[in-house]
Design a protein that fits this description.
By secondary structure, the chain is of the alpha+beta class. It has eight helices and four strands. A four-stranded antiparallel β-sheet has the order 2-3-1-4. Bound molecules: inosine-5'-diphosphate (IDP) and magnesium ion (MG).
Amino acid sequence: MQKSQFMAGNVTFSMIKPDAYADGNSGAILQMIEKAGFKIKALKLTQLSEQNAGKFYEVHRERPFYKDLCSYMSSGPIMALVLEKQDAVAAFRKLIGATNPAQAEEGTIRKIFAKSIEANAVHGSDSDENALIEASFFFSGLEMF
Ligand code: IDP
Ligand code: MG
């Protein structure tokens, strides 16, 4: 697979999580993402099995919230997104705000839409390397990047 743009830091991976999708907030969230200058390069409406949620969040398997997180993330449809912008990973983490919405800055996606530290509306990759791994979890044919 060709990794040039992922490695150059222009691409991140996101999910609109089950709470935000179920509440009908996907459109408003996509609009905030586009208004912030991200280009949607891939988008899929899908649902994780509990087992696949477990694989996606493997890095957290020793954390006390892991089982709940896998159950929540497989509880309903999600939207998987590949997003492009300069310095995408950091720019997107800024747009979504802190993991805990109580600590998220005003105007961030999580501040506006998250219900709790767990049901926090959106996912954003934390590194270029993980952006590629996470995007590959949902999409094949990433040669386009
Ligand atoms: P991030 O999504 O901001 O990168 P991570 O620490 O990677 O945060 O955690 C992954 C996800 O696990 C969070 O987005 C949230 O849904 C859930 N989570 C994180 N910390 C807690 C917690 O303390 N209690 C319950 N769920 C949590
Ligand atoms: Mg994370």
